[in-house]
Specification:
Organism: Decorospora gaudefroyi
Number of helices: 11
Structural class: alpha/beta
Strand content: 25-35%
Number of strands: 22
Radius of gyration: 23 Å
CATH superfamily of the largest domain: Phosphatidylinositol (PI) phosphodiesterase
Number of domains: 2
Protein name: PLC-like phosphodiesterase
GO molecular function, one term: phosphoric diester hydrolase activity
CATH class of the largest domain: Alpha Beta
């Protein structure tokens, strides 16, 4: 048995990627299909076990139909297993013509090659930075409403670190993100699930849940709100992007995990006024900002849109004129699967997307801002199982997002937020001896995937284009 893994080729263009030739030496599996326009194919690759495996090699050559563009997939075993893309006769916004793009290799898991084309005919790939992908895409996206734009999103975004909270909580069952807030922004995330709590009299991000309505809570803390404010300001001082922060799951952990009082909410808003570039309008009333165009927010500036999911008794008051909005100003669909099973989660989320998203003209239209919750949730039996760490389950689920989910998306039914744990991470970071997350590389795959949705799917919907 050889050493196998997968390469997912995602074709976010109107052109077929046709296989012109392929050959290999000592590879146990090296067979490549033509990749149809708008589709993804997950191809199994296996290095051999016979002979000198240091000589294993394979090449697959692709032409992009109707163009002069060409690229190759290369396998080499000079010192370690790896797959490489060679841009033989083409360039992308991230890589010049002739570049070699190392994708690495994951045993029994996938690495990805994602390419899409925008309205101007530019090629985008997952071979480089997406730190200002919104500004780079303004030619296509400036006149689209937020309901018609896809973006990466961070679940429990403030939990890029772990600080002890309750008994039984540790980083494997409480930390959801490997990267901190600033690093998530740099990796392309634009929608942030932030859960502020009071802990020891300080505002911090928290991840707490009640155990089966028992009045027993499990959880811990992440970054301080002060640290998050500093990091958001650092990013918006550098890049003119839109950042959406959704405040929810607020608790007073110093007072029996009770809901925040009006006075405490006011104190939180005062703290968050330290965020610069807040998107501010006077007397917003019931305005639905998800129906605003991207250019309304960031034509020549950065903008931070802050939405607060308020309990019934809590009021915004004058904070509504200072860049804080209630849930009625940004209605969205968000329904997570509450399972640790990849197959069940995948079926659940795709069914919900199909049922609740249908961007068409006239009767049958459904275009509420859609959070596509591609997250696995620990169950009771997982809480003390470090192998089932939240971040580990997230890296396993991501492979299916690039292949299965992409192939299920359509121009009429695509998500607004690709909502994940461990954003920007493919490798498992929680491994024996389970003392802290190990160092793993960061990638840009989820940002490239969101851009491909905007280019190859949303850009083909006449309703989206008409609204633009």
């Amino acid at each position: 048995m050889g050493w196998g893994g997968y390469l997912t080729l995602l074709n976010g263009s109107p052109f077929d990627w046709t296989l012109s030739s392929q050959h290999s030496y000592q590879m146990d599996s090296w067979k490549w299909p033509t990749i149809s326009a708008g589709k993804a194919s997950k191809v199994y690759v296996e290095f051999g076990t016979k002979g000198n495996i240091r000589d294993d090699a394979g090449e697959a050559y692709f032409n992009i139909a109707g163009t002069s563009n060409k690229f190759s997939v290369l396998a080499r075993r000079p010192s370690d297993f790896k797959l490489t893309i060679s841009l033989d006769n083409m360039s992308t916004k991230q890589s010049p013509k002739g570049s070699s793009v190392g994708l690495g290799f994951r045993h029994d898991a996938a690495v990805n090659w994602i390419m899409s084309t925008d309205e101007a005919g530019n090629w985008w790939s997952n071979s480089g930075s997406y730190t200002d992908w919104m500004q780079q895409s303004m030619g296509s996206l400036a006149n689209r409403t937020l309901k018609h734009i896809c973006m990466p999103g961070s679940h429990d975004a403030g939990m890029g670190t772990f600080k002890p909270g309750t008994i039984g909580a540790h980083f494997a069952n409480t930390q959801t993100q490997y990267l901190d807030f600033y690093q998530q922004l740099m990796a392309g995330s634009r929608y942030f699930d932030l859960r502020p709590v009071l802990s020891n009299g300080q505002w911090v991000a928290g991840h707490y849940s009640e155990v089966a309505d028992s009045d027993v809570w499990l959880g811990g803390n992440g970054q301080s709100i002060a640290d998050i404010i500093t990091q958001v300001n650092k990013f918006t001082a550098q890049y003119q992007e839109l950042v959406i922060i959704n405040l929810s799951h607020t608790l007073d952990t110093d007072n029996e995990y009770k809901d925040l009082t009006q006075t405490q909410w006011n104190a939180l808003f005062d703290k968050l006024k330290g965020i610069k570039n807040r998107y501010t309008v006077s007397n917003p009333g019931t305005t639905d900002f998800s129906d605003n165009q991207l250019g309304d927010f960031i034509t020549d500036r950065a903008a931070v849109l802050i939405i607060a999911q308020l309990p019934n008794a809590i009021k915004l008051g004058d904070y509504a004129n200072q860049g804080f909005y209630s849930g009625r100003n940004f209605p969205f669909y968000d329904s997570y699967s509450n399972t640790n099973d990849r197959t069940r989660m995948r079926k659940d989320q795709l069914a919900k997307l199909k049922s609740n998203r249908n961007i068409v003209a006239g009767a049958g239209k459904k275009d509420k801002f859609h959070i596509f919750s591609w997250t696995l949730t620990q169950q009771a039996e997982d809480v003390l199982n470090f192998d089932k760490a939240i971040m580990n389950m997230a890296t396993e689920a991501f492979d299916d997002l690039v292949s299965d989910a992409w192939n299920a998306f359509t121009p009429q039914s695509f998500p607004n937020v690709l909502y994940v744990d461990a954003l920007g991470i493919s490798e498992k970071s929680v491994v024996f001896p389970y003392d802290k997350p190990r160092s793993v590389p960061v990638n840009q795959d989820i940002a490239a995937l969101a851009v491909a949705v905007n280019n190859a799917l949303a850009g083909k919907n006449p309703v989206v284009i008409a609204r633009s």
